[in-house]
Amino acid sequence: MRVKTDEKRQEIMDAASAVFGEMGYEKAGMAAIARRAGASKQTLYSYFESKEDLFSAVMIEAMESQADALFGLLDGKAEDLEATLEAFGRAYIDFVTSPEVLNLTRVAVTEGAQGVLGPRLYSRGPMRGWAAIAANLERWGREGRLVVDDPEVAALHLKGLLEAGLVEPRLYGAAAAVSRDQAARQGVRVFLAGYRPPIG
Question: Is the N end or the C end of the chain the one with fewer CB atoms within 10 Å?
Fold first, then answer.
C-alpha cells in the first residue's frame, strides 16, 4: 500500500512541477494540478497542506535530485583539486541551467519575494547546498590545500564565479556570455588564484 501512496505522491509532484513551470506559481491552481495528475483536489490535499507546501516540495526535490551526485564529486581525496572543482563546476552549471530548474527558479524568485515562501525555499535549497560545499572547502583548508578564513564566503565566491555570464542571461531567456566549459575552467582558476596557499 505504501508503494502506491509514494507513487501517487510522486505523480502529483511531477504534475505540479509541469504546471508551475508553465503557468507560474500565482496562476497555477490546485485544480489544474489535480487534472494533470489525474487526481481529485481532495487527494492533493491529503498529501500536501497547501499550494505553498506543494510548490516547496517540488522545488526541494528538483534541487535534491542531483545534490548527492554533485556533492559526491567533492568527496574523497580529490588529488587534483583543480580537476575536481572543474568537474563539480560543469555538473553544477548543467544543473542550474537546465530548463526545469530555470523555470522553477524564475517562479521562486518572483513569488518568494512576496512572503515566507522565498526564505523557506532558499534555506532548504541553495543555502543548504552551499553549506555542504563550504564544509568541503573547510576540510581542504585544514589539510593546507586552501587558505580559507570563512568557508561560507569562499563557497559563495565559487558559486558567483561558476554562474557568471551563464545563469543570469539564461534566466532572462538570453544567450549565455560564456560556454559551460569556459565558466567552469576559468571560474575555478580565478577561485584557486585567490584561495590557494602562496608558493614558497
Answer: C
Report the pLDDT value the prediction gives residue 115, as an integer from 0 to 100. 67
- Cα separation, 20 vs 38, in Å, equals 16
- Whose cell is 556570455? That residue is 177
Torsion sign (Cα): 20, 22, 27, 32: negative
Contacts of 177 (CB under 8 A, 6+ apart): 165, 166, 169
Give every residue of the chain whose pLDDT is below 70, as ranges: 1-4, 65-68, 76-77, 111-116, 200
Fold of 66-195: Tetracycline Repressor; domain 2 (1.10.357)
Count of Cβ atoms closer than 10 Å to residue 82 Cβ = 14
Grid cell at residue 78: 580529490
pLDDT digits (tens, 9 = 90+) for 152-170: 999 999 999 999 999 999 9
pTM of the model: 0.77
Contacts of 183 (CB under 8 A, 6+ apart): 89, 93, 161, 162, 163, 164, 165, 166
CATH number 1.10.3720.10 given to 2-58? no
In the chain, what are the domain boundaries?
2-58, 66-195
> Whose CA is closest to 158, among 132, 122, 178?
132
The pLDDT tens digits for 40-77 are 999 999 999 888 889 888 877 877 766 667 777 777 66
